[in-house]
Specification:
This protein is about 35% helix and about 30% strand. It is α+β, with helices and mostly antiparallel strands. The protein is globular and about 40 Å long. The termini are far apart. The mean pLDDT is about 85.
Length: about 80
């Protein structure tokens, strides 16, 4: 899937990015395009409910890699180049 060209707003995605203080889930949430996301933090139970209500799908490893690649391109102009 080419992440940059899809915009199906019926699709909701999450990517868990961490756990804070053994109580909260840190995650990215996107609608339609996994490369455009907001970073959110919720307690575990609320995260579970949020995912259920939004009918999310977790990003596949391939989608995660594409998001990371796109982020590097955006930040540095090309992937792998540090400032």
């Amino acid at each position: 899937m080419d992440i940059g060209t899809t915009s199906d707003i019926s699709k909701r995605y999450v990517r868990v990015t961490g756990v804070r203080n053994q109580r909260f889930v840190e995650f990215d949430f996107s609608i339609g395009d996994p490369s455009l996301f907001v970073e959110l933090v919720l307690p575990f139970e609320q995260f579970r409910q949020f995912c259920q209500r939004q009918q999310v799908q977790e990003l596949t490893p391939e989608q995660q890699a594409q998001v990371d690649y796109d982020r590097l391109k955006w930040r540095y102009g090309q992937p792998g180049v540090s400032a």
